[in-house]
Write a structure and sequence with these properties.
mainly alpha; Four Helix Bundle (Hemerythrin (Met), subunit A); 6 helices
Length: 209
């Protein structure tokens, strides 16, 4: 499991020619790192007199970030788990008409399954951005730069995950379903990236001033 590996071992696996972990798992991990930085901001805020009025909000955000971090680490593993049967399907025989029909049906099912995991990553990141936006306003001023880094990690997770949706839907025979998945992913990408850029811009402005 991703969370049980050392950073060094994970990077060694990621840089190898093995198919997993790959871009999908790395995107989910980037999101998990963003949630961890958000939690750090929370920990630097709670218990301080200056922020007593927002402490309940911050604690609520921290609980949300802990859940999102666990979800994203699980999705990093899920990304590898759904890739294995898809890779296996590519190797199915296709010499007879019956074999070709079976292979096409299996491929279609597994391509769709492989598209859903990065969509779930994107959904988690969208929820994270809402929390980070509030942390930028209410969190410790000493940690505002960390909110900015968290936002950039979340944005990277979003931008990476969308490509893993598209690469799978591209091979689907059901173009209507593929279009539905692509539209859902594109909406999250555009709205999430815009929100991330807005939050990051606010952080930069505060740091410059």
């Amino acid at each position: 499991m991703t969370k049980e590996q050392t950073i060094e071992h994970y990077l060694e696996l990621l840089s190898s020619k093995q198919p997993v972990p790959g871009g999908g798992g790395a995107s989910a991990l980037a999101g998990a790192l963003g949630s961890a930085l958000g939690l750090m901001v929370g920990n630097l805020t709670v218990g301080k007199k200056k922020y007593a009025g927002v402490e309940a909000d911050i604690r609520g955000h921290m609980a949300g970030l802990e859940t999102l971090q666990a979800d994203l680490l699980r999705l990093a593993d899920e990304d590898a788990e759904v890739f294995a049967p898809l890779a296996e399907a590519y190797g199915l025989p296709s010499e007879t008409e019956e074999q070709r029909a079976y292979k096409e049906a299996v491929m279609e099912e597994r391509l769709q399954t492989a598209s859903l995991t990065p969509l779930k990553v994107m959904e988690s990141v969208i929820r994270m951005l809402a929390i980070l936006e509030d942390l930028e306003q209410k969190g410790s001023v000493m940690a505002v730069s960390d909110v900015g880094v968290a936002v950039q990690l979340a944005r990277a997770a979003l931008s990476g995950a969308v490509m893993n949706v598209y690469i799978n839907t591209k091979s689907m025979k059901d173009r209507d379903r593929a279009a539905e998945l692509n539209e859902e992913a594109y909406h999250m990408l555009t709205s999430g990236a815009a929100r991330a850029d807005e939050i990051y811009g606010k952080v930069l402005k505060r740091l410059e001033n």
